[in-house]
Amino acid sequence: MRSAVVVGAGIGGLAAAGALARSGWKVTLLERDDRLRPGKAALVLWPNGVRALRALGLAGGLDGISTPVPPAGIRRPDGTWLVQPGPQPGGVGDLETPPVVVHREDLHDAFIAGLGEQVDVRGGIAVQSARVRRDRPAVGDGRVTFEADLIVAADGPDSAVRRRLVAASTFTSAGFAAWRAVIPWYRAPEIPAGTAPHGELLGGGQRFGYASLGERGSAGGSTRGGIYWVVTVPGALRPEPPAGQLALLRRWFAGWPAPVPQLLAATEAEDLVQEPVGEVTPLPETFGVVAGAGGFALVGDAAHAMPHHLAQGASLALEDVATLQTVLAGLAVPAALSEYNRLRKPRIQRVLQQTHKAAGVLQVRGRIASSIARVNPRTLERAAAAATEWGGPTG
Ligand SMILES: Cc1cc2nc3c(=O)[nH]c(=O)nc-3n(C[C@H](O)[C@H](O)[C@H](O)COP(=O)(O)OP(=O)(O)OC[C@H]3O[C@@H](n4cnc5c(N)ncnc54)[C@H](O)[C@@H]3O)c2cc1C
Question: Under a CB-based contact definition with an 8 Å cutoff, are residues 36 and 112 in contact?
Fold first, then answer.
């Protein structure tokens, strides 16, 4: 029986551990936290991510926990339309299926169910080293060493495994800070009648997006219903405690149209998650590093963290895992890793290129209306649509 060690129990690691176990591998999952915890708030999965979940046999897990988010246009901070709602040629309205929004706790539960009984889960292991041992790849936390035929590095943007294997690639700030939160329905604010259940506003380099998880007041499309919002602003991470960060957000967005101030007023400091926005740069030369008779696979943010402007990070992690599972089915580990890199590298480079285009629009500041018109805000929609184009696990 082939053996794998998966480092990190985020979306990429949980998906990889479950996929390998279901394919007959003996899997050990290492997580630095004491127990497996979901990320906070919610996220959007694009059709390519749902397709990857389908390839992994997990798409059924989305039933009842996801809510479609059809394109709703983009408004300026003064309430006027920057991009009118409705289909635009080459825009997200042209997609066969809209993206869905899902609470991260619900997604986490679906992945835990997908792990089955066979995965050996070890919490409290913060991997520090990665090397070749007895002709196989090995990782360790300074106390215990784990070796296997395959080691999957899914330990996020600051990946310790990546640092050991490809030291030149580092996670570098993209010059934005971001916050997200989910407000449970029982605390949901009074939003003026006629306000769309989801939407996006953009101006002065600041971006505010929101989406309802299910029907108001019901468990609805999510067992943890509520309203998800995500904010992106230029600048560094804020050092203030969460209450101070929330006060700043309320001040920055005070004049914006409904439901922005209402959502921020209904947010509590403990709902708030501040996250760095950055990119692994340069991209690792290879996402599959051969080590003796086996090797390391880099997946998700460990391989290619990028700014969240197109909301593709989790979908790309799932694509990585679906591809890895497919190539490992027919090949020995070293050959499979080379094939994995051949299939994933150009795909990631394309999405990164679209992400940089989107960043160009977001970075427009100053005289909002005129300058942003010159940049062409439809670029955002087109970049988002282009990023969903994925040829499936075999390219
Ligand atoms: C504001 C914001 C909004 C976003 N919105 C979306 C969205 O709508 N849609 C979308 O698809 N993506 C979105 N993303 C991106 C998405 O969240 C990430 O791409 C995705 O979570 C990456 O998953 P991962 O499993 O690769 O890494 P992570 O989620 O970072 O998981 C890494 C895991 O490894 C563990 N770990 C770390 N180091 C070690 C170690 N040394 N040893 C052992 N374990 C370790 C961590 O504790 C963690 O459990 C967003 C990102 C941001 C910042």
Answer: yes
